[in-house]
Specification:
mainly alpha
């Protein structure tokens, strides 16, 4: 209770509200009193059931993709013949999760071969369906017996009914939200921008101006698949986001299955409720990050590794399946190597090396150490093969493109033709924590458990008492070990972005729901029911607010799209001639642009610098280096068919602030003034500006250090975005 009181007393990040204030807002909403919000509603796009057919069309394409993927998953699960009686939720999760990973690889291979077309995407699913029919079903759909640790008791019908009344509408709300236009910077910079570029060029190639697209892209291949099937990059991106949102539903199936098999059905329903209604689950469905798939592959690989304790035979196939899922985690994000593959391997070693009644006995009736080792070594080999199959294509792609299989990581070991020591020196501090003080560890834990805006009060409030079950229930013990491992690696090996610990939420949901097993008395379970009801009500209400992210719901899709596109990009989309091509300087958030452009991210070689710098002046500091003669620059721009130069000084300022990523010192305001004076560029058009007084002291100091910054000031306004037209 003290934790909950403290949690609700905390303010919401970047707002003046406390969490407790939302209870009053919720009460006003339920009672129909308070501000109706008519003014704000009038400014919002039209919304209603008349726009549902457009949403259903996109969901229909997502369903087609799921069907294609399930053909692959069904073929693999049947071919492995695990010898285990599955629950329905286990079958759904495995077939869907493995199928989506295979579909991602098929799109990768088709793109690398220059065959991004519906036939290349769909034909392998027909082959997989034939394979699935060939092997047939080798196990019943429902498990008839449970593990000895499971509580054999039917859940109260009222509990099931109430949970279903919450999670079914919430799942629909989640899927509708996944069709919202993207608003996040990273999504519009590379998660969707990379697939958009590949779709437009009809093949997958190394995008040397966008280093992030060299990451393993299991998740991002699915929007690309949708773009190919739909034949449009915008609608395909939205349909792909709906497919990515299904990873949250598949994760819920795994949470339910783990609790049902090893704990109790009542705990399964509660854990599923806690997981789905955690605001992070909805938020990660609104934003096309890789953490959604990473979360699923972590919890599913752990589930499969748990099975090894129950298996008499088929341990090699089970280990191979765990390896496939672990490899999918790393194919979603490099961090999967540490957060998923390593702990899953440890679970397998523990399951096979520790004595079990199902292991062969030695001559004196004891468990044979040699027998355990003989079962462990090949199982780990099969696990490694499964991992390799799913991650190797991504590593070989990078090896071919750059000479570094884990590019842009591991430069000190592998090098890389597209990287440099200077770029690596910027990358490492920007993508790792700047301090590892143990004294600050409690504060970092509180950032995760209490202060984060999108966490749930139930995750830690109920997991703390569930620690009393660690010695009694093996599943609880293992879950807590995985949580500790995940938090430790998040703290030690990452730059501690809050979304990086999302994969721990299913595990925390399981441990939180296990508090139900602490005591069977009606008083305890009634008390828990009140807490869970209150926490769930708060979470569901919070998920209806803009604080969780932009949820388009049943808005007019075209109006919702216009609402989310930056005003400067909207203006360019509407006014630039069809023959235009824009060089973007400082701005890489370009997914919404409908005009041809050239850009680079902050961690790529600056294209403006490459095109204009005098390469013979290498001994001069970059900030002072000479430009090429105006006629040469004019010739380069003309040869590249550049008609406009777009400079986003606001982004350049953000990068140059202390403790940020930094930005090449070559780009200074005076260079553009010189090009205007030389007649290469026409005088700039200011597209966005900001009062100079609104900049912080640090921002003003940073801008004032730029050469020629005075050209960015106009009547005490700072020019955030300038557009230059290339002079005839």
């Amino acid at each position: 209770m003290f934790f909950l009181y403290w949690w609700f007393r905390q303010p919401l990040e970047a707002t003046e509200l406390k969490r407790s204030d939302l209870w009053l807002m919720l009460a006003d909403t339920v009672l129909g009193v308070g501000d109706s919000g008519a003014d704000s509603e009038a400014a919002m796009p039209a919304s209603g059931l008349q726009f549902l057919p457009q949403k259903l069309r996109l969901l229909g394409w997502a369903f087609v993709m799921l069907c294609l993927a399930c053909c692959h998953g069904l073929a693999i699960v049947r071919r492995l013949n695990l010898g285990l009686r599955f629950y329905r939720t286990e079958r759904i999760a495995l077939i869907g999760g493995i199928g989506l990973a295979v579909q991602s690889l098929i799109t990768l291979f088709a793109g690398l071969a220059g065959q991004l077309n519906p036939i290349a995407i769909c034909l392998p699913s027909v082959v997989s369906l034939l394979v699935a029919c060939r092997f047939g079903s080798s196990e019943p759909l429902v498990l008839k017996s449970r593990s000895s640790t499971a509580v054999l008791m039917r859940p109260p019908s009222l509990l099931v009914a109430i949970v279903l009344m919450v999670i079914v509408p919430f799942a629909i709300y989640l899927l509708l939200g996944s069709l919202s236009p993207p608003t996040d910077f990273d999504v519009r910079e590379y998660h969707l921008q990379g697939p958009k570029e590949w779709f437009q060029q009809g093949r997958i190639s190394c995008l040397r101006h966008n280093v992030y697209t060299s990451f393993p892209f299991l998740s991002e291949m699915l929007p690309l698949t949708a773009m190919v099937l739909v034949g449009d990059w915008w609608e395909g991106a939205l349909a792909g986001q709906a497919v990515l949102a299904c990873f949250q539903l598949l994760t819920a199936c795994v949470v339910f299955a783990i609790c049902t098999r090893w704990l109790s059905v009542s705990v399964a329903w509660l854990a599923t409720l806690i997981y789905l209604t955690t605001p992070w689950t909805l938020r990660i469905s609104l934003i096309a990050y890789a953490e959604g798939s990473l979360t699923f592959y972590l919890i599913s690989s752990a589930m499969v590794a748990f099975w090894l304790k129950e298996q008499i035979g088929h341990r090699h196939a089970t280990s191979f399946l765990a390896g496939l899922l672990g490899g999918c985690a790393m194919a979603s994000k490099y961090t999967g190597l540490v957060s998923v593959i390593a702990p899953t391997a440890l679970i397998i070693c523990w399951a096979l090396f520790c004595p079990s009644v199902k292991d062969p006995l030695g001559s004196h009736g004891e468990i044979s150490l040699r027998g355990r080792l003989r079962s462990l070594i090949p199982a780990m080999g099969y696990f490694a093969v499964g991992v390799s199959l799913m991650i190797a294509p991504w590593l070989f792609r990078n090896l071919y493109d750059t000479g570094n299989p884990v590019y842009p990581l591991g430069y000190s070991i592998f090098g890389g033709s597209e990287w440099s020591p200077e770029m690596n020196a910027r990358w490492i501090p920007a993508h790792s924590s700047r301090e590892h003080s143990l004294a600050l560890l409690p504060r970092h834990f509180m950032d995760v458990a209490v202060y984060n805006m999108w966490t749930s009060s139930l995750l830690f409030a109920l997991s703390i008492p569930a620690m009393l079950l660690i010695r009694r229930i093996r599943t609880v013990r293992t879950s807590f070990l995985l949580i500790v491992w995940g938090f430790a690696t998040w703290w030690a090996l990452t730059h501690r972005i809050d979304r990086f610990w999302i994969p721990l939420i299913p595990l925390l949901s399981i441990t939180a729901a296990c508090s139900w097993l602490l005591h069977s008395s009606g008083l305890w379970r009634g008390f828990l029911s009140v807490l869970i009801t209150a926490g769930t009500s708060y979470n569901v209400y919070f998920c209806t607010l803009a604080l969780v992210g932009f949820h388009a719901g049943l808005m007019d899709p075209d109006a919702a799209r216009k609402l989310t596109i930056r005003s400067d990009i909207q203006t360019l989309n509407a006014t630039l001639p069809s023959t235009s091509k824009v060089l973007m300087v400082g701005d890489a958030e370009v997914f919404d642009a409908t005009f041809p452009l050239v850009y680079n991210t902050v961690f790529d070689d600056n294209i403006f610098e490459e095109w204009t710098v005098d390469s013979s002046d290498i001994m001069t500091p970059l900030r002072e280096r000479r430009m090429l003669p105006p006629e040469e620059i004019r010739h380069i721009l003309k040869s590249q068919r550049i008609t406009h130069v777009f400079v986003h000084w606001g982004e350049i300022l953000r990068y140059r602030l202390p403790d940020s990523y930094d930005y090449t010192a070559y780009v200074q305001p005076n260079r553009f003034s010189e090009l205007v004076s030389a007649g290469v560029l026409a005088p700039p058009r200011v597209m966005l500006e900001r009062p100079w007084a609104s900049l912080s002291a640090v921002e003003q100091k940073t801008v004032s250090s730029w050469v020629g910054y005075e050209s960015l000031l106009n009547h005490n306004a700072f020019s955030i975005v300038q557009l230059y037209e290339v002079a005839e």
